[in-house]
Amino acid sequence: MSETIETLQHKMEAAARTLDFEEAKRCRDKINLMRGGATAEEAEQADFGGLERQKPGAMGLGTSQQRMVPPSGWTPPAKPDPMTSGQSLRGKPRK
């Protein structure tokens, strides 16, 4: 039985009303395939298991650069002691 875009939209809305978001996602993906030129049979046989949306923060804001990852074994430098700020090396306050 081949489904049309209209019947898939109705199934998607019904699944969303019953909080079955996985079924609604499958219907949405089939609709997108059919709008892209796939037949109903091709959309039915398509595997959506590996598709997932990009996670926020995985890419730079508005760029194609990935988030920087420090090299293995790297530790951030120690923070300065706030009690020594404003002190010179000889123990005299700065002017």
Automatic annotation (TrEMBL):
Residues 2-37 form the UVR domain. It holds the Pfam family UVR. Gene3D superfamilies: UVR domain. GO terms for biological process: DNA repair; SOS response. The keyword DNA repair applies. Keywords: DNA damage, DNA excision, DNA repair, Excision nuclease, SOS response. Residues 36-95 are annotated as: Disordered. GO terms for molecular function: nuclease activity. The keyword Electron transport does not apply. InterPro entries: UVR_dom, UVR_dom_sf. This is UVR domain-containing protein. The lineage of its organism: Bacteria, Pseudomonadati, Pseudomonadota, Alphaproteobacteria, Sphingomonadales.
